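Here is one chain, start to finish.
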Amino acid sequence: MEETQTMIITGTNSTINSECFVMLMLAMHPDIQQKVYEEISKIMGKSDRDIDVKDLDQLTYLECVIKETLRLFPIGMVIGRSIDRNLALGSTVLIPIMYMQRNSKIWPDPLKFNPDRFLPEEINKQEQYAFMSFSVPPRNCI
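Its structure:
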């Protein structure tokens, strides 16, 4: 029961924090906010219906905005991994996700909010593990 509660609370809290950072980034970058608005308007047209699951695949620029937000503000700043071999260094390795995703050797102008980094043609240029929103693979969490 406690583990289930932890998963629910952690999942809810991380989603809320990520949503807040996305909204903050959109508020701070009206030009990007306009592109997201135009993308949604293109999909919705003059309809007053709610966006549904079928529409999500078409929100490609919004996905870029979310990924760029998670690059700058990852849900977990650091992840730990146990070592399964004997090493003189110890038995746990910490991976500093926030540092890696703000590293200028990996990301040009790393503190700039630039969703275009995640356009399909740009993703192919990224190093394999340059972006770890949660961990690797992308949906590997607690």
